[in-house]
Amino acid sequence: MKLLLKNGRVVDPANGRDGAFDVLIEDGRIARVEANLPANGADVLEIAPGWIVAPGLIDIHVHLREPGHEHKETVATGVASAVAGGFTAVACMPNTDPINDHAGITQFILKKAAEARLARVYPIGAVSLGSKGDQLAELGEQKAAGCVAFSDDGRPVATALLMRRALEYAGMLNVPIVDHCEDPSLKGDGVAHEGYHASALGLRGIPGVAESLMVERDVSLAELTKGHVHIAHMSARESLRAVRAGKDRGVRVTCEVAPHHFTLTDEALEGPIKYDTNLKMNPPLREAADRDAMIEGIADGTVDLIATDHAPHHADEKMLEFDRAPFGIVGLETAVPIVFDRLVHAGKITVRRAIELLSVNPARAFGIPGGSLSPGAPADVTVLAPDARTTVNASALRSKSKNTPFDGWELRGGVAATIVGGAVVYRG
Amino acid sequence: MTTRAVERPNHAERPQAQDVAAPQLRSRHLLAIADLDADEITLILDTAVAMKEIGGRAIKKVPTLRGRTVVNLFFEPSTRTRTSFEIAEKRLSADTLSIATATSSVTKGETLVDTVRNLEAMSPDMIVMRHSSSGAPQLLSRICRSTIINAGDGMHEHPTQALLDAFTIREHKQRLAGLKVAIVGDLLHSRVLRSNVLLLKMMGADVWACGPATLIPVGIERLGARATTSVDEAVEGADVVMLLRIQNERMHGHYIPSVREYFALFGMTPERVRRANPDVIVMHPGPMNRGVEIDSAVADAPYSVILEQVSNGVAVRMAVLYLLAGRDERDEGVNA
Amino acid sequence: MSRALTRIAHEILERNRGLDELALIGIRTRGVPLARRIARTLKEINGDDVPTGALDITLYRDDLMRHPVGPQPLVRRTEIPFSIDDRKIMLVDDVLYTGRTIRAALDALIDFGRPRVIQLIALVDRGHRELPIKADYVGKNVPTSLKQSVQVRLQEIDGTDEIVIEGEP
Fold first, then answer.
1. Are A200 and B191 inside 8 Å of each other by CB?
2. I want to staple B2 with a disulfide (CB 3.0 to 4.6 A). Which of A161, B168, B319, C162 is the partner?
């Protein structure tokens, strides 16, 4: 099976490449990346002018909801959504039902992914049994089954002691701990960012410090144990400061920011749809200074990568009072348009940086294959159309759930094709 | 007598001889003070003046809302507000129905949206709702056909309370602009605070909000009030002192150590009232915790207008019901 | 206009033996100053004070709530500072037209008490009654077509006394 991607602009930061190159794919792997390659019997995919040929995008923070919450999403619908969003691989969080704290669940998820044959799926296992924070899960067995990281996402790793042990143990396995940083006592029953807008709307607030306090704990523990901590869905400027300080000291800390946290602020809650539950997520949309800090961190390299925290919820579940609606929004299919429209075209980052954030660094952070177009690497390629005008249409999303705040948004940037293992699994 | 004929073309916008072309409320719901402007607030208060007179008659009833159905949907217990709305509705001859959720389908797990949709299938004209979640009325207004009146949503707003408070102040002071109004209590959790600050600020009053530092909401200055933790500073020269409830559960969130200490630092005592303007009026939305936010001597003093607030509540709610209940064509028929 | 009101005052005195038990109630808005002027004239002629009140009939109108377009009419206070039981009540209105305002006024009055007699004084009768109502005292009959409107302007409210008829006959 030969596929030739002809006349594209190849942006491959891992190999220092940005220019006009053709990419030849053979038997599911990158064979050659050179200018003016002859077809020689290969299928030819003509890359239109302006399009970008990049290593497959990887989203390392996704909730596939299966097993247990199949009404929101399944592995099959989740990976369909992923490839429509340009992602060739995703890492899925363990807060399913039952929680993925056992190799049998990991194997189940991998089996479902293999049946779907769309994006690759890398499970993230729970740190503790049931994510209850009492007892370490069998991290070794889970790694052997296919887990690439561990997290109790949905909650923070419950105690400093457990986090310490987890970092030490996972460090032995050469696998990161991903923490949902949040001090439960400061978070309380908050539902929105503690600030003027939450006060005006009568919503209980969650201060930025609830997140940064835990980030500081984790950075200190990573320093102590020499383990690798990855900060999930960072949103507060105080957290960015703590990460930056940790990196300056040489601590093995990486972090991610989701598109909504560098695009929206808590002001959005006041309208045009007041109390729109599609604006409710945890961590919440914060104030402008936080959003701007996230953009700054993305631009200056403090932020390692972008991950969507794709969190599907059924429409019925979001059609509730703001207090009672579940946290979370989908994000796989809006990430690329937002990154291009709000960061690249806005002049905040280059295309190269965008590819680092969406492909190179996710692969590196979790030690998973991908992130480059090196010959011999798996042929996971994303063809991007940076100038394509995309109007977000919630009802047309391939995800089973449509809980997005971006419905109707007109953005510049889209996905032309997604190729996994040499097979074109999505055409835009 | 002088009669003159005027050759002017007929047009629909002719002012009526009998009635002034009335300003109206722009929205078909009353969800929040934040949605109203100063003219609308004045309209409601002026209409309430006429409604109040009805409460002084022997037959306290007018046929205005005859044949209209109003449902009072109270998801939080409330005797005072619910009764006030019921009486207001009955005085306007509406058919009224009160649903208290202890016995309703909500306890069987039905969502708010389904509960109201089922209710709507029976075509109520208006729904008066109190709910413990901020924003519940906004959610409903997006899916309901009925007119929605917010009788209190979570920590967000209680528009008719602020309106009746303003009515009471205006009756005593003949104005709202330029008055110093001190609001003391649990500011953080109070919907009465938010509605009052917005309304009083809009009408030109100088609002001071006072409470323990743990109970002052972020951004209250931006909402329109000066914030202070000193009750003496707040009350100094005030024309109106409004007290808010302190609930017992505030001790569990570490907001205050005890009600005893709260009373010592913030309770409204006769001594503290003396710092205010000699014509001060003292208000409370009720129910009061005597000895916590307010000393009994203050609650029962001649400058306390707490019971007037209650009776004004009926008049103000009648005004709101009337103004929202239906529209009249600009007609000529009144030239009777 | 003052001649017509004076004439009405004399008629009232002629047809009623004395002014006891009489009270004037003006229908808002312009019925009210008219009622006051009649009361003043009666006092000048006869020397007695006639109690005067103001009635707002907005909440009793039969056309409220019927149409979903347009604003609610403004409601004003009713002020009747005396008992109407067993009295002879003279309702005062500026223009008598369809009769619906008077019907509403009768409904309102019944809620206030039980007068012995209710009579109607209209400054202008423009015809086109839709209900079986007639004025007992009329200032002036002004035949009009349905396409016209009749407005009374009064010194106390509009700064001048005149009757304005608009529209084609």
1. no
2. C162
